[in-house]
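I wish you would study the pair of lines that follows with an eye to the fold:

===
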Amino acid sequence: MALTPTQYGLVVASLGLASFISGILAELKKPAAGEVISGRGVIICKYPSDPSVIWGIISTAFLVATSVAGYLSLFYPYKGKSVPKAAIFSSTLCYSYIIVALGATIFAAIFLIWPTVEGQLHHTRNVHAHADVELESACPTAKTGLLGGGAFASLNSSLFWLVCLMLVNNAREDYIADNDKHVPI
């Protein structure tokens, strides 16, 4: 069964929504700080159960999936009719929205990957020299708000891919209509 632009749009929107929800869950499940345990010349940070790293990875995976689906939806041969990429990229509006969608995807990926990796590093490198004065009160966690911002940027990215799909679909219909006019009967 061949896919329609509407079905591809639903796939892109569903994956984008899943990325958004898992990014928000990652932000909500992130602990405020770890517990400080003082030892001989070292401070050990003990963190409570923290699923934010897993949710961050899941959100990033959904972001990649929605971006790949969004990009592939632009060049999919709907109804068996393929359109050359030059016809799609000749439209300045289509080209600019594709660039914006790629930029939003990169922006969202940075905002999701950065705190996820930082949170994982805090959990694995939890022994610090006692000279660190800032660790006396609380053990650090990933920056607050980055995962939530990445979730919103991920949703924004999927919406840009949907706009690109609509613009490319219009360009595709125009290209097919123009070629049907010039074909001799």
